[in-house]
Amino acid sequence: MMGSQFNIRRWSSKHVAKWLKEEGFSDYVDLLCNKHRLDGVALLTLTEYDLRCPPLELKVLGDIKRLMVSIRKLQKQHKDVLTEMGYTSDDCPGNVACATNSSQGKDCQCNGVEHFGDSGGSVGDTNSEQFQNGKYNKHQTRRLDPEYWKTILSSIYVFIVFGFTSIVMVIVHERVPDMQTYPPLPDIFLDSVPRIPWAFAMAEVCGVVLCIIWLLLLLLHKHRSILLRRMCSLMGTVFLLRCVTMFVTSLSVPGHHLQCSGKLYGDQWAKFQRALAIWSGFGMTLTGVHTCGDYMFSGHTVVLTMLNFFVTECKH
Q: What is the pLDDT of residue 236?
């Protein structure tokens, strides 16, 4: 074998090419020696991770395993060279591809799995890549930037949209179709079950409870800024869409139990006051706000659905 002829540190790409041919890997001579110029030292420190990942990206699993067996034999024959270069096998039995650095901890590959360590006990911002059960997994561990300026912009956005929604509701309320001319639309389910007077109020109570849970979750979550801006962005966009649908299409009142009719609020100042009352009361009957004409797109359904999703999906 070539390894016994002279020090592997003196191997050039031609020596590595000859070694590959002797081991039965002639197909990879061009890739490893000509294209990537592997010499003796580079060959000795080659790992399975290097073979699988860019820029080499060997595709044949059998060749990868067989080549690693040959490389490990070579590593075993030249343990002294690896030790002089700072590599050790103390933490990885059967594989000497472990580099120890006093300032950066250890990076080990054992049986094709790469492990990351740190002298301080934590990794910080790293991108770890590993092979496990024949699959390539890339784990990105990084700190998420709260980006408070985005949170502030999204909060301003939802604030403006809620105000705009209140103005649109005032306009739509003036256009509510007359119940005598346009009676409630028939509904197979609702017409077949008795009306529950307290159901709507209970829906608002559920919304308030969900809102409290969401605020507590937001307060205790480590990414509260990110969650808040996502909530504001989604809520604002959905309510903006709600404004469009309410303004474009006016539906008849859904039931005879509702005392709804088109109302004229007089001058612009009266309309503004009515919009302010809707906005300050969050459009809820619990706060004394009664509106008509927004049946095309229920705001209560939007809030309940959004809060439920955020509470259940963003708790970790």
A: 93
